[in-house]
Amino acid sequence: MAEPSRSDGTKPPAEKATPRRTRAKGRESRRKIIEAAAAVAGERGYEGTSIAQVSKASGLPASSIYWHFADKDALLAAVVEESIELWLGRVTHGAGESLAERVSGFCLGVAQTFRESPDFLRLVLMLALEQRPVEPAARGIYLRLRAEAIERIAEELRQVRPRLTVEAAQLLATYALAGGDGIFLASLTGDADVRALFRLHAEAVVHLVEQAEAAGG
User: What φ, ψ does residue 204 adopt, rounded to 5°?
Assistant: First the structure.
């Protein structure tokens, strides 16, 4: 197909690459790489992921990946960093004044993460399980921010149940996140009714908080 001509018969000048256009293209490439790496690592884990596999999944050459990231460790650390803030917001946001409302808010947030970021959740669970002589940066980031999530949830619980001790609140917050991990695993291994499981989990957490408070915890 011939290029369109102006009214005077001349062709318009070729569109030039501007710094803004170049930056936008770079951001788009980086996003493709991040998404592809999350999908590959979510299936294969840290050890089973390679730059070649990410290149194939993203449709971008390995040179493009290395332009953005020094190596696989840096790439997977970026995957965790890109997703962790959204995850933190989901799992630590408890709206409402009552204990039941706060706990339901946590559970709904975790359930929403299931729907929106399953590759990320698979990756971080694999990272948490994998033990290596040299800890990957991605694993360190996840474990640090998971501990932060537990602290935030514990603070939320103590806001509505101030008689809870710090230790009891942290234990209950750890249990609440662990239950979410278990439901996610159940969703991967069969036809689990995730909504029903989260409703049951929320009821269990509320009961345990009330029991701990009554016991003076």
Answer: -65, -40
Whole-prediction pTM: 0.75
Residue 107 has pLDDT above 70, yes or no: yes
| CA dist., res. 158 & res. 155, Å (int) | 5
Burial class (CB in 10 A: 0-12, 13-18, 19+), 104: buried
Dump pLDDT digits (tens) for 13-55. 555 557 666 677 778 899 999 999 988 988 888 888 999 999 9
Task: Say if CB 128 and CB 143 are below 8 A apart.
Answer: yes
Round to whole Å and give the CA distance between 42 and 104: 27
Tokens 């005077």 sit on residue: 8
The domains found in the chain, sorted by start residue, are 21-214 (1.10.357.10)
What sign has the CA pseudo-torsion 20, 22, 27, 31? positive
Other beta carbons within 10 angstroms of residue 161's beta carbon come to: 18
CB 106 within 8 A of CB 166: no
Q: What is the pLDDT of residues 138-174, one digit of tens each?
A: 888 888 888 988 998 899 899 899 999 999 999 999 9
Retrieve residue 126's tokens: 């694999």
